[in-house]
Amino acid sequence: MAEQIVDPTPRVRLARITDLAALVAISRRAHDASPDEPAAIRSLGLPIAPAALSLYQLFRMPLSLIRSSDSIWVHQRGSTLDGLARVERDLHGEWTAVELSAVDDAARARLLARVVREAGRHGVARIHVACREDAATLALLGTAGFQVYARETLYALQLGRAATLPELESVRGTASTLRPAHWSDALPIAQLMARVTPPAVARIELTDARDWERATTGAWAPRASISPLLRLAEGSAFVVDGDAGELDGWVHIGVAREPGEQHPHSMRISTLPGVSVAPIIAASLAEISARATEVGTGGGAILAVVRSYESGVGAALRAHGFEEIADLRLAVRDARARVTAPGMVPAIG
Asked: DSSP H helical segments within the chain, as ranges?
């Protein structure tokens, strides 16, 4: 009688340098799959190709030099790797799940549970994640304690399809509605964003004075679904002056570190309701074109993220040739929300 073959017990472990080829293959299969059809590899559905995820760059250095909070975990059945999870850590010590890809939702659930457990071990209060509006993924996140709090639409424009460089240059400079941000703009930018952002979202995306100061230099921008995936050579901040010393708008632009379609530039525009967005977009495109040419990464795509409460920006982007490429959800798991439970309050005395 033939011996029955038992399916190897699945397990989740930290990735090793010998896993590189399998990781790249999993990531590529996940991102090549259509988000609208069941795929052999399930993912978060973020519209960034694997090359932009820099898995290779993470493995250029010995694994001992990678911070424990900037980690990749793999899902293994026997000798086969069939899933991966990757997180990145920001300056506040919070984690962002950048990739969660596996052959089935059971494997993704195990990976996500490991990420949550490791976050608890490292004292990480909040884990962020962005994904397409996929019922299975949203259910998976909900089961793990994540709460969806914002919706974003992602727009893309090939820089070559925008106005020609001479036309863009004519917008840049004295005719531009933008001026470079100064350190003294930190408070006005914070006040602008407080008027634009719903209180429920602002409470989740806590921003301190240091962030607003860094925002004036282009070193910080509001959280977005694609922010951890971008590899930028530089970031710049511009503002649009309003009345009585207030600001009508704030723009953050990022120029890709490397050329090619896999390394897009970025643009984020925040304005008060009623402010004309069209001239701001034109001036921002001019800045990106000029700066990308200076660093040798001209061409490629420009990505722009628009929140559901930022009315008017999406229509203005479409008028400039941007195309809607993804509808994304932002979710967060906040461990601090659970300490109010009576059973979790430490005993004193």
From this structure: 20-32, 55-58, 105-121, 135-143, 165-171, 186-196, 199-204, 209-215, 278-295, 313-319
